[in-house]
Protein 1
Amino acid sequence: GTAGMEAGIACAVPRDKKVLVSNGGKFGERWVKVAKAYGLDVDEVKLEWGTALEPELVAEKLATGRYGAVITVYSETSTGTACDLEGIGKVVAETDAIVIADCITAAGALPLRTGQWQIDIVGAGSQKAFMLPPGLAFLAVSDKAWANIEKIDAPAFYLDLKAYRKSVADNDTPYTAPVSLIRGLEVALDMIHEIGIETIWARTAMLAGAMRAAAEALGMKVFSRRPSDSVTGILLPEGVTDKQFRGTLRDKYGCWVAGGQNELKGKVFRVSHMGYVDPVDTIGLVAAVEY
């Protein structure tokens, strides 16, 4: 996923304008670093963790005419927070700027209507809702973004999107392809299509809602003020250490949850609702947490 997002940033962001980058967690912070690594004129919007970039702020910034791109994270995995990507897309579409969205923990889990929402570049990865090992990055690129890419001499070789577009026209890749992962992707997509993506969106929302309700019923608190349905961040109970809590879940009950990252390390645990997860998994985890 990181390679895909870096390719979009390196190849599609205009060099003669500023780029607005939202930073509300570990992955927003990553896109700030990537943009700066390519020498882009970055306007970093630092958000309180657990909050999201709002369309109104994007509209205010873009009204100046000084911005060529907006980079945001649809589902910030580190905080379990989702933004109003549809609203942001609508605002950006009314300008000459493009919007690049990190949808790595959103694609295949949260509602995502790329064309209808006018999202210019969507980045995703194989290791989340696509239920595969890491190793594949996916990009959806609009005509508006391609117009930028064709004009930019990107300082990239392996991540040069023009090379990929040329090869895709011949049903090929410009460099050696991870064939085993692509074959696995075909199986995963067949599974997704058999269920139906709207059904998967609804199931993900149901599992997330159930986990949040269960946590609150057990006296715990959901961290985010705008929770994502793909991953739930829950504050650890007072007096309970991360090592003790997650270690007991793993060793005694066979349940794996993620810990906090950066400033949330040792303060929250995170539960995935993406991909090959069903109600039995969720109910079982709730029971293990209660015991």
Protein 2
Amino acid sequence: MDPKLVKAISAAISLATDTPFRSTQQAPISGGDINDAYLLSDGQQSYFVKINSAAKLDMFITESQALAAIRKSRSIRAPQPITHGRSGAYAFLALEAIQFGPPATQSWQQMGQQLATLHRTTAERFGWHRDNTIGSTPQLNQTTTHWSEFFCKQRLCPQLDLAQANGIRLTQTDALLERAAALLADHHPDASLLHGDLWKGNTSFCNDGTPVIFDPASYYGDRETDLAFTEYFGGFAPEFYDSYHSAWPLPTGHDQRKPLYNLYHTLNHANLFGGNYVTEAQQTIFRLLA
């Protein structure tokens, strides 16, 4: 890491925590596609730090706000945001460093119960107090009281417009939006606080087996969207789903809405990475229209 950046981050952490901190060790952390990550330590204290270009500071600010909202719900563990800022060509986000470990016997069950508790934190309107990002893609969050309107206009339409701008040719998109509006017309969910990007890679367990979630793209929306995306990359343990459904059963029709909700993420991956995600997006559109 750039020594000037390390010094700036150390100073920001010291100010935020009111405790002297000067990083003497910067260990790279692998696993992310969007940011560079490091574990900064002075031999006694450690912090998890994300780095990106200075233009990405707003992305870090909104992530910090989402983590704070999840923590405020007192439902499920999330890293404590420490500070964020900009130094030269870089933006940074410093978080509590959590030591991960394997799940304990009841960990997946506990995660399901705690996610249901998170989702019981509700608002009067769908959306968020500001736009944020899903991965590095802008995620629009203008609030509304109508879920169908929100999902079509704030989720599907921006991704479809971005795909067109990226030269991705998808067919029958107008019919898709009509189908989405019809599928959601009589569905009136609570506006639940969501993680927003809940796949297995954004979850883990502390050393004592306590579930933890991170890298959120939070907003208030249909809780089914979080549950749907947990299944996208192979799914969570069966105990997770049993526990969630026991705590708060999903309403009739959730299986029919699941592919529509996951299409949002497929479109986002198509816009970010291209390749097979473009084919998958088109095939999902065809299936929804069949």
Protein 3
Amino acid sequence: MINLSQIQLPHQKLNAFSSVAPMTSAQARVEAQKLLQAGLSQSVIAVLDLLVVAGVLPTYRLPASERSLRNYQRQRLLDRLPYTTPEMQDFFQAYSLPVPEGRLAVYTLGPVGIEIARERHGVQPPTGYLAYPIERVMHDVVMNEIVLRIAGRAMEHGWAPVWVSKYEATLYADPNTPLLEPDAMLRLKGEDEELVYLFEYHNEDKATRARRKVDRYALALSREALWRERWEVETFPPLLAVFRRPVVGRGYQEAVNGRNGLQVYGRTLASALEEDFSTWYHFNAGEKVNLFPWGRERDE
């Protein structure tokens, strides 16, 4: 997990693609050890830690200059995903995401960055993005954008957002069998309380996956000892579902009806990316509510 209040997240222009030589796992481990022994800069640590949790991010969401990111790529700390700027611009525009002037790129951990993450955090960071179709990449880019926007608003109101990695958020029925894998988990830490939220994002235009998600979350809810210990919470966190198509929301509504305990909220992607995103539709109650503490403070 990463405390986002300790990292400055500037909005940056994007750099040009540069090719790099292939590297074996053994070579990556050697290079990682060299860098760890020499000591990592705070900029490197901030970028790598953010990608350990996010998996993939556009350049303007990474806290480093364009020149630094090019250097990190040459060192194989980062990999740039092999999509052209026109492709990325089309997809970012389709999802209503920011489209900076000039080139547009997204980065993930490179082989050396992966080895450093394993050493520093003791977890397997998200990988595989270089082989993913762009639609799969965009799923995570969009989910990350939502989390970062909520985190930014939280910091404006004095809350410390802690982004929990997918590995840390996953519940396991046994050591080798995942029971629940939320798309994201965010903790908001205040002076005397902590709020926890789970997230799911849907690209598809069918209701069936939403119903399956509710079934999976309900099953996880029934394993109280498991989630209490894993997540260190007293109550099961609310689920925030974001979807591109309204039919997915209807799937959540139908699946939630008649269920007790599991609290599910939803917004369309277009509305979730608006300036004011504190109001969410509460599927259980059938009404809109101010979900985040700053929204509730405004109503008081």
